[in-house]
Amino acid sequence: MSLYRAVFNKLYVLWFDYYTREEFKGMKNLINSDLVTALITECDNIRRREASDIEDDDFEKKNIPYIDTNNYLRDVSNDNNTLIFGRRGCGKTSLLIKVAQENSKKDDSKLIIVRDMQSMKKTDGDLIIIKLLIKIISEMNKYINAEVAPEVCRSYRSEHTGIKGILKKIFKRQNKEILKEYNELKTFIYLAYKMQDNLSNIYKMEKSLTYRVVTNFEEKKEREQRSSRKFDGKILNKDSIDFSLLKKMGKIENDFELSIQLSNVIQNNISVVDSKTINKEDEIIKNRSDILEEQKDNIVTLFKCFYSITKKQIVLMLDDFYQIKNDNQPFIIQFLHDVSKDCTNRGFRFKLFAIPGRLILNDQGVDMSYKDDFSPLTIDTDMSNIDFLCDHLSKMLSAISESINTENYLSKQDILDLFPRHNNEEVFTYMILASGGVPRDFIVLFKEVIIEARKNNQECVKKENIYNVVKKTRDDKDNNVENDASLSSETIDMLRRCLENDFANNYKTNVFLYPISAANDKVQETILRNLENLRYLYLIKDNLTSEKTKEQCKAYMIDMSFCIVGSRKKNNFEIRKYWEKTEKSSVLRQSVMWSFPSEVIDAVEKEIESIKDN
């Protein structure tokens, strides 16, 4: 007995020594530490990011965490018009914000202008374009006034005004380059002023306008006199506009007569045009969008002028563009594409952020393609590589922690230590499965499981905590059906019930294979894409061979919320470890084959047809 007691005492001493080490005690209390508290607080801020955050006064100084595993920052910053696709929560807005910040810190060749399109989802397409153009002109003016005008005006006054300027003029020693820069600046200010005036007038118009057109030589003469008057700008020092520069740009001063005409149209329902065009009183109908189209060349000239002065490319980034009504999307995209194409000096580019399948390029008379006219970029990732997702998401949380305090933060390993193995299963892997690998859903889930574990006085997160809070992430999905789906809420509800009935109650598994031959059918493709966008389904792999049927398939995982009751999974339900290998194949390839029943497909097809008819 004495030998056993001696061994026991020795083991007890060793255990006590290990247990009371500082690093072990730190590990034991990590979940309750201030670092974790700060992290879950910041997670709440990050999940609520908006594109408008770039307008904050301290935006450039903020340390915005972004783990760029796949070089998305480089791809979005290319010199092309770009379409960026990804499900809700995959990081589109975070990428947009990071691109804007990196540009403000490092890249002096771009003027980035950001708009959140969610607030315009009920606005007519032509009015959306006007709002965007007014925003662009406002930002251009802001940059010109802050960065260009003070230096140009100082140089001009030094070279061309006062006694010194008079003497230089007499002896022909004036610097002509300074005069040219000054005149270019005045020209831009004049054009920007007139363009804003035009756009404001067009915005006030009715959508369709009938007005009389008459010949009036007195009005024409007055209009010409008005064009030759000196323009009293803030920095013009009582000098007149150098219209020779305008003539080099295509004599566009005459194009700006529209703003004068529109003033008359709005007030008196009368417009005056050149008698060479119309020799008698007439009545015409013009749509607001047609009049906006007529201003396209002027807009291009303005953007070219800005680039000539600043050598800065205007980059318009539109977040949540899919929120715009489908009928309006082709017109807006075509207008922006035309302006970009006509800016031969590459002075204007645009980037659209949307969810897959919710961007409408083509309409009657519009023929564009993703690959030919844009650089498409998908920033989503599938569920095939669990190790990659584990690495990426743990690094993301560590980066958020570091953004709070660069000297004292949670490392990637600290994050993983919050989720130790439980019953020989990796708890962190279950976090990935519960969130579908979607960064924002993962952040929400992380915050909730930490709070749940603390509430239960646990030293780490357990699977039961994940099961208990996964239903909360489901609320966000259900609440955004109308925004994110191209099908009706009733149809989505029918598809959800179909999934839940077959997998939660019958097959009792969360992974299935869908035949590619069926998935390529337009109706079934629409169904699958909608369920993916809503995060009820997660793509594991887009092409593999079924072990059982030898068919080419897509592999999917259903959302974990379908198989959870309270704080546990349903009885006999298998959360399939599809990433594991067997001796001759893989667990994934041995999964059940499944597709939507014909009556469900027929119901969806009828809805799609009715949408087309309307």
Radius of gyration: 32 Å
Sequence of strands across the biggest β-sheet: 2-6-7-1-8
Largest sheet: 5 strands, parallel
What's the N-to-C terminus distance? 90 Å
What percentage of the residues does DSSP assign to strands (E)? Answer: 5-15%
Which assembly state applies to the chains in this document?
single chain
What would the principal axes of the Cα set say about the shape? globular
The overall average pLDDT, rounded, is 81
Structural class: alpha/beta
| Number of H/I helices | 25
Uncertain residue segments: 18-27, 223-280
Helical proportion? 40-55%
Strands, count? 16
Please sum up the structure shown.
The protein is built from 25 helices and 16 strands.
Can you tell me about this structure?
- 35% of the residues are buried.
- The chain contains 25 helices and 16 strands.
- Helices cover 53% and strands 12% of the residues.
- It is an alpha/beta fold and 614 residues long.
- It is globular and about 115 Å long.
Task: Break the fold down into its secondary structure elements and pairings.
Blueprint: H1 2-19, H2 22-28, H3 34-47, H4 72-76, E1 82-85, H5 92-106, E2 110-116, H6 125-160, H7 162-170, H8 176-204, E3 208-214, H9 217-228, H10 243-248, H11 257-268, E4 270-272, E5 282-287, H12 288-294, H13 296-310, E6 313-319, H14 329-342, E7 348-354, H15 370-373, E8 375-378, H16 386-404, H17 412-417, E9 421-422, E10 425-426, H18 427-435, H19 439-455, H20 463-479, H21 481-484, H22 489-507, E11 511-515, H23 516-519, H24 522-533, E12 537-545, E13 552-558, E14 564-565, E15 568-569, E16 592-593, H25 598-613
Parallel strand pairs: 1-7, 1-8, 2-6, 3-4, 6-7, 11-16
Antiparallel strand pairs: 3-5, 9-10, 11-13, 12-13, 14-15
Helix pairs in contact: 3-16, 3-19, 6-7, 6-8, 6-13, 6-14, 8-11, 8-13, 13-14, 18-19, 18-20, 19-20, 22-25
